[in-house]
Design goal:
646 residues; alpha+beta; Neuraminidase; Rossmann fold; 37% strand; globular; hydrolase; AB_hydrolase_fold; S9 family peptidase
Length: 646
């Protein structure tokens, strides 16, 4: 029987970017290390038969970052991005699927950020910023690096790569718009293009726009604005008309669940008004897959599970085809739609690539974590319960390893997910921020709630936290904790709480609302919503959660009532604060502010900042530290007082 250690958790690999060949016979995917020991991450391209008739094959050696495989039109080769020429700068490469030499197709100084092989097999659409000019090089040499807002913006521009000549031709008609995503019409027609105003989605005036580009002439046709956080451009055809659909945040936004929006693409002129194809559904779309020219397939987060739906062309509504236990994401489909592939995980199985018919069972193809076999996990149970106002909720509870309910009550740690638009699916929960199964090996029961504001129960459920974070979602969590106490699972005198990002906010919020928790872990958490609007990369999204902006007047402001820092004088619970020093999403000042407040009021706490880290902790030694430090913190404060620990 293997033992769960921090090293076992972080020294694994994870599959990403699955892409099925047009004929449905093969799926290519990336296998990336879970952690990063060097400055630049590494990953490899693999390919597997979708029917499982042969074992997966590793196409690239994985000594550099090889990622984002896409099939050539004849499926004989794969295009992919790699920094094997210059570490840290991605160039376009190609490799024969049957094996052979990797060919570098670009040496663009600024690198390639996106690529899409076109139906004309002589062309590949790529996105790349302009190369440095002589003036840029002079300024760099003279250390003239003053950052002037709006100047020298590295827009990702659409360029067409001629494979015969190696020349890159820029598409001029998009102007100074940053290209984010591309999708060519399945008949080889125009390319749908999604753009932003700047390379970073504007935190004050976010604006996504849609365009069409003729790959032969470079002519650009504007289709108008797209919804917030638009992604997943997908073509389909009905009654002789082409449609374009995509995922976006439901209006009025910016807080709310994702929806599938659809527009009829005209031959000339402006597009028609966009239609929400998922309005009124109590599940949430998480991915789209194009099926030649027919109606698209879609993945839906459905409570603790995932479902595959197909769009009905007549009713313009999605109809369920099959249900998958636990988590599934990143769906890709063959041209006929008869075969799909996803990355999936269930309660005791890690994420792997699975493939099969969309109406039936999907078979596992990859095996990225064989070292996890033979481990005894804590028993993972599904919970259904009711909020204080009668709303139906769900979540998970993991019992300590080798224990049953009859062995309780146990010390209970509540781990709140990020987002808040996210969820706990019934999958293997072995991450590091913090890790549920890792804590279960130390004798803890772990509660994983899905409070309102999250994914999987429709728009109204997700949008209910707009301007109200920490309110009803907090009572949803408390209701679950109280249920586990009544059921004899949780020891009311040994409760802990923690989380990362929005989960870190909820941990900081909890200790200012109650002293029931004996220990808390605030990972990359928000302490002040007003300051987050001023410094975080999401801007108006954070204002939508906090409910107001500091520039709206002298106050009082709603975001002050919803900020954990406002309740610091009430806190008595020991808090472990963990944060990445270079976090652009929740800047480290949020943690520093909370740390200073806890010092001011004499609260026991520990403040840890990880150099070089962003919102997610990536370096191996730092990940190991998070795991060890988190469990040691809970061990320190939640130990059984009846036992002699001398």
């Amino acid at each position: 029987m293997s033992t769960v250690t921090p090293e076992l958790i972080v020294d694994g690999a994870i599959p990403r970017h699955p892409m099925i060949s047009p004929d449905g016979r093969w799926v290519a995917y990336t296998v990336a290390a879970y952690t990063r020991e060097e400055q630049h991450p590494s990953s490899a391209i693999w390919v597997a038969a979708t029917d499982g008739s042969s074992p997966p094959r590793k196409l690239t050696d994985g000594r550099s970052r090889d990622a984002d495989p896409r099939w050539a039109p004849d499926a004989a080769s794969l295009f992919f991005g790699s920094d094997r020429l210059t570490r840290g700068t991605t160039q376009l490469h190609r490799i024969p699927v049957g094996g052979g030499q990797v060919q570098a197709l670009t040496t663009w100084k600024s690198g390639i950020s996106y690529h899409l092989p076109l139906a004309d097999d002589r062309l590949v659409a790529v996105v790349a910023a302009d190369e440095p000019t002589d003036e840029d090089e002079r300024r760099r040499a003279e250390r003239d690096d003053a950052k002037v807002w709006g100047e020298r913006v590295p827009y990702g521009r659409l360029r067409l790569l001629d494979l015969d000549t190696g020349r890159l031709r820029v598409v001029d008609g998009l102007g100074d718009r940053h290209v984010v995503e591309l999708a060519q019409r399945p008949d080889g027609g125009p390319i749908a293009v999604l753009t932003w105003a700047t390379p970073d989605l504007d935190p004050v005036f976010p604006a996504c726009e849609l365009h069409l580009v003729d790959p032969e002439t470079g002519k650009v046709q504007d289709l108008g604005p797209a919804g917030l956080e638009a992604s997943g451009l997908t073509w389909w055809k009905t009654d002789g008309s082409w449609h374009l659909c995509y995922l976006g945040t439901t209006p009025p936004g910016p807080v709310g669940g994702r929806a599938v929006f659809d527009l009829t693409v005209p031959e000339d002129g402006a597009a028609e008004e966009q239609r929400n194809l998922t309005s009124g559904m109590t599940v949430c779309p998480s991915g789209l897959a194009q099926v030649a020219d027919g109606p698209p397939l879609a993945l839906f987060a459905d409570g603790l599970d995932t479902a595959i739906h197909r769009l009905d062309a007549e009713t313009r509504r999605f109809q369920p085809m099959s249900r998958l236990d636990g988590y599934a994401g990143l769906m890709t489909a063959s041209g006929s739609g008869d075969v799909v592939a996803v990355v999936a995980s269930t309660a005791y199985e890690p994420r792997n690539v699975h493939a099969g018919p969309p109406t039936g069972r999907l078979a596992r193809l990859s095996d990225t974590r064989p070292e996890l076999r033979g481990i005894e996990w804590g028993t993972q149970e599904r919970l259904s319960y009711t909020a204080s106002d009668g709303l139906d909720l769900d979540g998970l509870v993991i019992l300590p390893v080798a224990k049953t309910r009859q062995d309780g009550p146990f010390p209970l740690i509540t781990l709140v997910h990020g987002g808040p638009y996210d969820r706990y699916a019934d999958q293997l929960l072995l991450g590091m921020s913090p890790s549920a199964q890792w804590l279960s090996t130390a004798g803890y029961a772990v509660f994983l709630p899905n409070p309102r504001g999250g994914e999987g129960r429709g728009h109204a459920f997700a949008a209910s936290v707009a301007g109200a974070v920490g309110m009803d979602e907090w009572t949803d969590i408390v209701s679950g904790v109280d249920l586990l106490i009544v059921d004899g699972i949780a020891d009311p005198d040994r409760l802990g709480i923690g989380g990362w990002s929005h989960g870190g906010f909820m941990a900081a919020w909890a200790v200012g609302q109650t002293n029931r928790f004996k220990a808390a872990v605030m990972g990359a958490g928000i302490s002040d919503w007003g300051m987050l609007l001023a410094t975080g990369e999401l801007g108006v999204w954070d204002a939508g959660l906090g409910g107001s902006c500091g520039w709206e007047g002298t106050g009082p402001h709603r975001h002050d009532r919803l900020s954990p820092i406002s309740y610091a004088s009430r806190i008595s619970t020991p808090v472990l604060i963990l944060h990445g020093e270079d976090d652009p999403n929740v800047p480290v000042g949020q943690a520093t502010y909370f740390h200073r407040a806890l010092r001011r009021f004499g609260v026991e706490h520990e403040f840890v900042v990880y150099p070089r880290e962003g919102h997610a902790i990536l370096e191996r030694n730092h990940q190991l530290d998070v795991l060890r430090r988190t469990r040691a913190w809970f061990d320190r404060w939640l130990a059984d007082p009846t036992l002699d620990h001398a």
